[in-house]
């Protein structure tokens, strides 16, 4: 059986430049849709978080920002169906990434608070990239690669092609203008070859070898389907 490790943020808030903390967590569709597609394909899914903390659902992701009402209802129902797994994640630093056929990072604003600076996640990502085995990060989750550094301090992902939520898309959030920094800028500053789609909020997937990234929540299905096609 193909085995997938989902690395999910443990953050429940995102600290903005004015010092306020915006309630957040993982984005529902970005976790639910790939989880569903992989499970329906017969793949096994393991969820892990920093410290083994049960991840927090960003309720905004099931509001109007999460799409049409019927779609949001389907996603919430799926999240509810896997709640037992989400409430009892593995502790990230006790997980061996090499035991999994795919490592998948769903997004949400939570990774901007914790995974961007998490040395355990960073080392996992560095080792995974070096192994050449499939690795996927979606929307805000590519920010986690900022913690993946080489011995000389350079970023392990420098020079690789990646996408993630663009500056334009972040600023479409009503609170986006209060961000301390933006994902796109941070990836480019780290030497990553950032790519994005022509239009914001449209599916866009970038594939660089075994490194898969999706730009936004709208890319969740396309990213999972591309991985399924390649790993089948």
From TrEMBL:
This is Type 1 glutamine amidotransferase domain-containing protein. Keywords: Glutamine amidotransferase, Lyase, Stress response, Transferase. Belongs to the peptidase C56 family. HSP31-like subfamily. Transmembrane segments: none annotated. Residues 29-229 form the DJ-1/PfpI domain. InterPro entries: Class_I_gatase-like, DJ-1/PfpI, Prot/Nucl_acid_deglycase. It comes from the Bacteria. It comes from Kocuria tytonis. Gene3D superfamilies: 3.40.50.880. The keyword 4Fe-4S does not apply. One of its GO terms (molecular function) is glyoxalase III activity.
